[in-house]
């Protein structure tokens, strides 16, 4: 039976981890691009760790809640505003593109570890497993693990796709990049048709990191 109050509570414990996961991924991508020589990131005002700078009202706000509550997806599913990067400004274009692509999964791995430690030490501050803080930390490990695995999928627009594109011949890379506007919908189709492709690796990652930090 559908329980709206329960759904909204679940949204509340996932909201902060979701916001940080999708916005700080873009923030780190921008920082790496800036370090590789792309001054346009700073000019756009996106060289910031402030989540609100990278959040999009629709894709970071409305879409994740609707997808979770109405479409019954297992997590908040959306994205931040993509940072516009100009590879032509990179000191070394090949290294720059590769490092920017790798920075996405790196940021999410850091988020998994961060939330795992919050989860581990929440009891030391008097929080029980039923408290909002502990459940938010658990949701943080879960969400960050999901996004980490999703980011590795070699689809256009995702970090895994960017790495694949880096190694493709020029013409093949151009054709692959042309599919980028459809990447989100392809990923949504995977969630509905082949969810275990994402779910199993994500829960493995979640349990692996949790065990490493002693949860």
Topology:
Blueprint: H1 4-35, H2 40-43, H3 51-54, H4 57-69, H5 93-122, H6 132-152, H7 159-167, H8 170-178, H9 183-193, H10 196-213
When the domains are counted, the total is 1
Write down how many β-strands occur, each being a DSSP E stretch of 2 or more residues. 0
Which percent bin holds the helix content?
over 70%
So what's the overall shape? globular
Query: Main β-sheet: number of strands, strand sense, barrel status?
Result: none
| Portion in beta strands | under 5%
Number of helices: 10
Structural class: mainly alpha
Question: What is the oligomer described by this structure?
Answer: single chain
User: What average pLDDT do the residues reach?
Assistant: 90
Describe it.
It is a single chain. With 215 residues, the chain is mainly α. It has one domain (4-213). The protein has helices spanning 4-35, 40-43, 51-54, 57-69, 93-122, 132-152, 159-167, 170-178, 183-193, 196-213. Helix 1 runs antiparallel to helix 4 (57-69), helix 5 (93-122) runs antiparallel to helix 7 (159-167) and helix 7 packs antiparallel against helix 8 (170-178). The longest helix has 32 residues, at 4-35.
At a glance:
This protein has 215 residues and is mostly helical. The protein has helices at residues 4-35, 40-43, 51-54, 57-69, 93-122, 132-152, 159-167, 170-178, 183-193, 196-213. The chain has one domain (4-213).
